[in-house]
Amino acid sequence: MKRLRGGEDAFGETEAVPTPPVIGEAAADGRHHGVHPSGKALISWRDEFQVGVRSIDDQHQHLVRLVNQIHNALQAECSPQDLEAAFGSLARYTSSHFQHEEDLYKGRHYSGAEDHSREHGDLLHLLGAYQQSMGHNDESRIRSLLPRLHDWLLDHIKGHDMVLGAYLNSIGIS
Ligand SMILES: [Fe+2]
Ligand SMILES: [Fe+2]
Question: What is the spatial distance between Cα 80 and Cα 150, in angstroms, rounded to a whole number?
Answer without folding.
Answer: 21
